[in-house]
Write a structure and sequence with these properties.
By secondary structure, the protein is of the alpha+beta class. It has a domain at 404-659: Alpha/Beta hydrolase fold, catalytic domain (Rossmann fold), CATH 3.40.50. It has twelve helices and 38 strands. The strands form nine sheets. Strands 31-32-34-33-35-36-37-38 form an eight-stranded mixed beta sheet, sandwiched between helices. A five-stranded antiparallel beta sheet has the order 1-5-4-3-2, covered by helices on one side. The protein has a four-stranded antiparallel beta sheet with strand order 6-7-8-9, with no helix packed on it. It starts with a strand and ends with a helix. The model is unreliable at 1-32 (pLDDT under 50).
Length: 663
Amino acid sequence: MGLSSLRMPLSFIGAVFLLAINPASRAAAETAVVPPPLDAYGALPDFEDAAISPSGERIAALMTSNGQRYVMALNSELETISMLRVDDAKIRSVGWAGDDRMVVNMTSTEKLPFGFTTNRAELASTVVVAVDDKAELPKPQAVFANDQSMGNYVVGHYGTRFADGQWQLYVGGVTFRRNTIGSRLGYEFDHGRPGLFAVNASDLSATKVDGSASEGSYRDWIVDASGNLAVRLNLMVSTGKWQIMNTQGGVLASGVSPYGDVALISLGHEGRTVIYALEEDGRERWMEVPLDGSAPAAEILEDEPVERLYFDHRTGYLIGYLRAGEDPQPVFYDSDHQATASKVRAAFAGVRPHMVDWTSDMKKVLVRTNGGKDSGTWFLVDIDSMSAKAVGYERVAIPPINVGLASRFAYTARDGLAMDGILTLPPGSEGKNLPLVVLPHGGPHSHDTAGFDWWSQAFVSRGYAVFQPNFRGSTGRGLAFKRASDGEWGGKMQTDITDGVDALAEKGIVDPARACIVGGSYGGYAALAGVTIEQGRYRCAVAVAPVADIAMMVNSESYQSGRNPMLERSLEQELGPSSRYAAISPARLASRADAPVLLIHGRDDTVVEIAQSRKMADALKDAGKPHRLVVLDGEDHWLSRAETRKRMLAESVAFVIEHNPPE
């Protein structure tokens, strides 16, 4: 996985680290008048993630120094305590179990043996790293890696708690069954339904907390502040029947959700209730019910547009939420926490401060800023002294002078539905008659915001306006807006995009005759649909890891799930009846392609199989249409590796420049 332990003198890493965050070096870089190289945009961020320890005295950071990636443990003065070289390992997050164990969560693409419904899977693992010489673990250790009765991967994370005098990690794990072969006792894979385990962070010994779901069922859990099981959710995939039960076997809530739209969220802010979410009566509802079953479930946050929830990572309690809107506002139940949030917002006004992590008393907070001319900066804020230290910069090679300003652009779809998208203009541009790159997001149930986006900024740096439409189906705009996309792949979801382009053109901001469409995953599908289902709109299309054939996607996902009826119902809800698949599949419409197409796909993609791009390439070839297929070896769906991400960016930008020159 590219993990190796490494210890360097403090003077070495301190010098490198200080060079990266020195304000003087940043100011000097701002005199640049030419755009940075594309690699500056395509590379993984110089500073990727960070977490603060329970005491607030240490920070875990994932960063690149002198071309090498490390997970580092820093003290409150930002001096290096220890470091772990991670190379190109796919690190997803870093955290803490106490003050002397860093927790590194990562994934890897693994080949599966014969008998599985897919030959590759993206498996998650959790690695515990000791941070000083007194540690009991001299080398990084992966949870379950040395237990032959367990799969050496984790399935879900359920919190870190200090229980019975020890820090414990609560994770999902898959138990192998015993099998006697001759006179030998071994273990073999039985099923993939995880149980809940407590893993001691000191020696990685694992204790089962709760068993796995029965066949045909799904199970989820919440662990309380003391490390005990609080509630479990059981969901029948065949019928959608679900129950939330406490540890005494009492049913706290139940219902039927044919599409599986029910989920455990957390314990309430006082720890005596459980909060869950479900879609019901055409609304997404937040429900709260006492753990002892003394009262029925009641809706909370009924009139609040919620963008995200805030939790105490050490207890699992809900402590607040971010109120959605054009200027999202944090709301905390505790008045001291609310005061802290207000101070942070005031101190970082204009640069979109995001409180990433904090101590339980919120006296020390990790803040990430992003927006305006800021390409991403991390700070350690001390509330008592009202001081902030810059911990790291995400894009050292991209100074503020080279960052294009991103803003929300509102418009109306042709059927009257209110829309918005993110418009980013080249630095210094007057915003008139610009060449355009349309960059629809993936998902499709996600959304873009007016922060620094490396892909759009790369095109902006080359002279293009970039438009990222939040078409119907995008999140953060309520359930009705999200569900307005049902059955609209290739339909209104697509015309929402072109309606945005037309609105920009009407205001004279872009030249609609000089536009290309670029996207990944669902955005890649939209790019292909933009030159097949639609006509005369774009000079070229770049599709990264796209869906090209709807029937192929549905058949593949259904097979890989073991013909899960809940998944099949959800796919039908989202895509509509199978009778329309051919009419909305770009691979079936390749003869209609009216612009050159670039296809880029990772060979290790386990979300959208590379067969999708290959089928599109074959169809375009048979139709005599200009196209090219680029295969990224060792890359997954998320462009997780630096070198292949940089290649994707170089190929896509060069293709757009070739067919739609910026001048």
